[in-house]
Amino acid sequence: MHEVVTLQFGQRVNYLATHFWNIQESYFTYSGQEESPVDHDVSFRPGIGADGNDTYTPRTLIYDLKGGFGTLRRENALYELEHPESSTQQSLWGGSTIPLRLPPINPSSYQQALNQGTQPPQLTADTVRYWSDYNRVFYHPRSIVQLSEYELNSSLMPFERWETGEELFRNLDREFDLLDRDLRPFLEECDQLQGLQILTSTDDAWGGFASRYLERISDELGKGSRWVFGLKDGNRVQRQREMLQTANFAQSIYALDSHASVHIPLSMPPAPLPSYLSLDRLSVWHTSAVEAVLMESITLPTRLRGTESSHDTFDTLESTLNNDGNRRIVTAGFSVKNPDTLHATTNGGGPQDTRMTNGVTHEDEENEVSSTDLSMFPTSSATTRSERRPHIFTQVESLRGWWKPGEEIEASNAAARDRYVEGPRVSIHQSSLLFPILSSYPGIFRFEGHPTSLAIKAQLSTSTAVAARVRDLERSARGLMGVEEREAICDGLASLAEEYEEGWDDSDANDDND
Hints:
It holds the Pfam family Misat_Tub_SegII. The protein is α/β, with parallel strands linked by helices. The chain has a single domain (about 5-75, about 105-514), classed as Rossmann fold (3-Layer(aba) Sandwich), CATH 3.40.50.1440. Helix content is about 35%, strand content about 20%. The chain is built from 15 helices and 15 strands. The strands form three sheets. Strands 9, 10, 11, 12, 13, 14 and 15 form a seven-stranded mixed β-sheet that branches. It has a six-stranded parallel β-sheet with strand order 5-4-1-6-7-8, sandwiched between helices. Strands 2-3 form a two-stranded antiparallel ribbon. The radius of gyration is 23 Å and the shape is globular.
């Protein structure tokens, strides 16, 4: 089945992943309906519930701190009888006990409506307190992993330094062997693993935790497709916190590079925003919804039925991006359009069987490649000033809706077979499956007619923009780290940046800008 297993590290990531799983749930079809274009077996696992009935739950591991799960319980309607922990604990102690209970968290009105099977109310940034407040999916109890050593938003023991996460992983792994306890049961259920997708924040302690987790995976499993979506807070913060986030981010970029097959840094909120996007920058529910557009759309080819590369799509996309080299860090962005408007303005807009069209294309003699409205790659003011128009080495596009006629893609595919054609290598995947706007999704897109689904153009690129950002990060980190770690990390970042400059010099850049 070529399964994909997901790992989620931290509160910010779990907001994003909740949007992702809600969208996957919306693709399910039932008796009497047309078969879904999405192969659910890739991301969902079959099982048996407490009552003996069949279940279908995400192939995911959800890590969060104490207090981070909100109203989500490890046991749910599918597995209520599986873990009678309270009775077990009571039998081990014959003396008197004084139970200490935290005040219960009341379910959101949205969750109450889902449980009752009624129409859920409209969510707002004020009513979403936790990511579980808008969750629409049941998870297997093994998916829920609470790290009780730290509490969410604690001022006494904040979980914000990279070294704190690194130390926590090592302590837990020494005591429990986290891969055997948590990950291996999900891997053993897979017939033929396509890859892992890892979601983590990279500017706090979760960056250290995820980096060491991924290192252990590499040691145990060897090579494989491991796509890391690394989240960085793009909001303005106090100077001291900004310095800490920069140091954490530098350590994550360096540590993850050797263990991720593709690393996709995402910064939210980006600036400037396109006119069709209205965003509450302080609401994680809002910002994670934007991240979900990119993450869910760019990985869509790995889950679709009947594609030419459906069995090894992660590997195929990696081959395009890396071009058999060491460029694992990629920039990301996307554009959004009303699908009706898009269809009306696309040349040659006729019917096309475009569940998925795959190919490799090259652009024209001027080395032009298509761009997006919104860039999510983390930048700084120094990077913006130093970086001229970036040169694109490779690019992957996932198009949802009628962005390009099939004839154009086929013509590009024919050109791609010519080994002497120069220019960026661009892999294009086009699907008729649009991005759905669910009741759990915030109303951040402003289009006439309020469409219930959207056309998306999502891109990943390797370019000289990565070199500029990594060099800027290396310069900033030198003044923020101790002597021992500074030499290894900063020298490593400098070497990493060189990978995105190889074969591309100023004379080429000047010719490109003429």
